[in-house]
Amino acid sequence: MGGGGADVLINRRQFLYATGLLAVAPNVSLAQVRDTYYEVLLRHTRWAETQYDTTAGRYRRTDFGFAVVLGNAVLLTRGNYDPALAGVEKDVLREHTLATIKHFAASNVLAGGNEWGKTLFWDTTFQSYFVLAARLLWPDLDAATHFHVEAIARGQADYTTSLGTGNDPRSGSWTPNGLIGGHHGDTKLEEMGVYAQSLAPGLAWHGDGPGWREAFGRWSRNEAGLPAADLANPSTVDGKPISANTATNLHDTFIVENHGSFGPHYQSELWRTSGRNAVHFLLAGRPLPEVLTRQPNGELLWRTILATMSDAGEPLMPMVNDREHLYGRDVIPLAFRSTVLRDPMAAWAEVALASRLLAYQAHPPVHRLAKFSGEAKYEPEARAELAISYLLHELRPPVAPAPDFFSRAALAIDHGAEPGLLAHQSAAAWAGTVTKPGFTKFAWQPAHDDWLFKISGATPMLLPPSAVTSRKTVVYQRVRDGFDGTACLLEFADGFAGTATLPTGTIVCALPRPGRVDVHNLAMPGMPGLIGSRTYTGAAGRVVVKAREGFRVDELSFPAVSARHVRMVGVQPHPTYGYSLFDFEVTDSRGKPTTASSFDPGYDPAKATDGDPATRWAVARSERGRADSWLAVDLGTATTITRVRLRWETAAAGAYRIETSTDGTAWTAVASYPRPDLSTPGWLDVDGRAGFVARSAAPITVQGDTIVLPAGIVEGYVRADLRTIAASAAPECPPSVLAGTADGYLSLFNLSDAAVTGTVRLPSTWLYRGTQRTTRDGTEYALDLPAASARVEAPWFTARGIPAGITAVVHDARRVTFRGGPARFTLTHRDGLTMAIVLGRAERTVTVPGVQPFPLDDLALGRVTFPCSVLPPGMTDPAAAVDGEQHTAWTPGRDGRMVVDLGAVYRVRVRLKWTNGPTPPHTVTYSVDGRTYGEVGNARYVAVSTGWRPGHAVLKSLSVNELF
């Protein structure tokens, strides 16, 4: 941020905020990203100064509040400081910062103090920020502080190196598991990253101490360790072969779990720690260690982040409770990738996130950067990481953002039953079927808008939130199937449910009972869509639901009733915190005896009727998941009651009822919450951003910020003519089968434990793989659906003018056989080619020229290949041999070897197709575990080893077919 440009940016934004004209997110350009970070740091300084202890004369130790000094140091040494935005004069901020650095440098254990430091988890993270702040302000610090800061960097590197691959005895149970790692429920990627980052300041500022560089490289190389990938990669990083890695920190689909579930926040940890480390080397003027720019498995790990990315540049987090919308914490991985790794996709995401930072920061509590998390330590950490992101942009200009981001990020993948995520990122939406215990849902974000539907953590969505007893999944990929999509059939203890995702961004679900969707509804000026209300439109009319300000207050009125006892009985608790009430007001209830089903110590029932707005009742922690918790007040005598008022804390009931009694034993319901704001048949538009079509006689209801969808087939559309779609006829199916034809795709669900054969009547002339017979108003599709299964069929052909009684057998996307003529009609392929068909009495097979015969039976198509991320010298990406393209090929390089991961074990036959020229010597070997290879043909992994030399042919395709 230099010259007058910074002042222009700040003054313009000040004006917009002051006049209330900042109603949409500013379109921050790549050139403005660094200036935006500076402005955000300035505004955040108002919060940072709340951490200053005037008595002690320094920032607080609590939750590492003193880490604010790094943001301060950036503001003090760079840019055009604006005290009006910061809320403190520059010389005062300098005084606070220098005093704090001087104190905590001396009080660090490594410098001879006893207040903090040395402990790997988590003191060393804040040591990294602290040392960096001191280095930025080095000329202003005295000799004693210099000595202490140097002692911290050197001492930590010595201490961490002395541990070898063992645990830090100061860190309790935190462990990287040596160099073995761990990925089941709690990856050790983060822990290995902490070991590495504790060494970086010493290496950067003091050169190579005894064993420092070797330890740094060892931990860094193993962070994203996956044996099947690593053992297939002879590349060296900092002189060490990747094949020497020993850690397993990733599931074999490159997904990371932490805290028992998939958390993209931790999926990004590789680049978060890399950003912290890289900035030390860059500021110290030293070359970056190679492992920071050539990260083993880093790009396949990054691909899974892209596959969950939102329009805000922050990944969606459907299985984590308190990591969503941590904008200040999600900047640094993007900044590192866009500047140091020069990744255009990361640059796009960083610009998107930077464009929303000021609007996010202005939302109450104002100035904060990590306001949607309960962890107080995240605030100083966010400030420090935003400061590092600013420095990375100063030191390494970023690459230009990629165009068509979501088209490039598109991916459909099943991460497996253990992680419990079947995900589909399309150009129009993100969707995921989540089956991890405690997180069951069908999460969907139309247009990738992470402020539309609530999908994080335990928040339910569409599916029953019950435990899944079995799951059957299908993943469709364009290269193999002609389209991207997913289908899934889930079994619960009491029934089945189905989900499907389409390449258009549309979803289809087969619901066994009504499902719910919760909607974000906030007033956050400058954030797209968050205008303080949501508008719902359906066949029955339109309703505007305003955003709640602060805690929710419910006032329920009902016909007069005489009662002595009144109680709230829960029906649906807050998904995380259960129930908690500041006030439960009934006529003359203040100070009256109050009881509850349970309570947390210090939050007893009487707190809800004591008249003090600051005290509250809360259910016991162990009862937070209980639906029917209750709170009751005894009015002492029969009283006429016509209303109750409930003021909730964050733990507000999603649903409850009010009951009265004359004796405290027999209860009668007199009111319930929620009461529908809108009840409409067939379809519902949500704020013009998305909508639902329900193939059911039961209505869709809107209750506050919750949509309830009826059982049966429900379709979700990004933007569409919902009225017309809802008016179209629905398929007619045999018992236990549900079907949908959204966007022309045939989604089929067998919601039973028995195979089903029969006929599905379809109201269209689309032709699907399989056999169908035309009728006067559509087709009759011959159904053969295994037990508890789901699938999606693409609409390969449309027959216009075709008479009833014609049988069409679609063999694949290229070939269809007709019989039952004579007839004349027009056949149109999905790709647009139209053919006039003349059908006689004999059957006729039509083959469309130039079209792939999807689905292809090549198991290798589109699969993950190794080596990846770091390729050996002379080798090109092995993915070129399995991409289905005729103009691409894999160049092995000298004695090159590639591996393709088929995703499951098959009995296989392999075919290799080389370009013209001498075929290199080569062998094909097989493995079921990615570790040991042999000549037996049962394999998940197929390896091609070559004796390639310049002048040899290159591998055009590697095809793998299953042998039955």
Automatic annotation (TrEMBL):
<dbReference type="Pfam" id="PF00754">
    <property type="entry name" value="F5_F8_type_C"/>
</dbReference>
<feature type="domain" description="F5/8 type C">
    <location>
        <begin position="574"/>
        <end position="670"/>
    </location>
</feature>
<dbReference type="InterPro" id="IPR008979">
    <property type="entry name" value="Galactose-bd-like_sf"/>
</dbReference>
<protein>
    <submittedName>
        <fullName>Discoidin domain-containing protein</fullName>
    </submittedName>
</protein>
<feature type="region of interest" description="Disordered">
    <location>
        <begin position="593"/>
        <end position="612"/>
    </location>
</feature>
<dbReference type="InterPro" id="IPR000421">
    <property type="entry name" value="FA58C"/>
</dbReference>
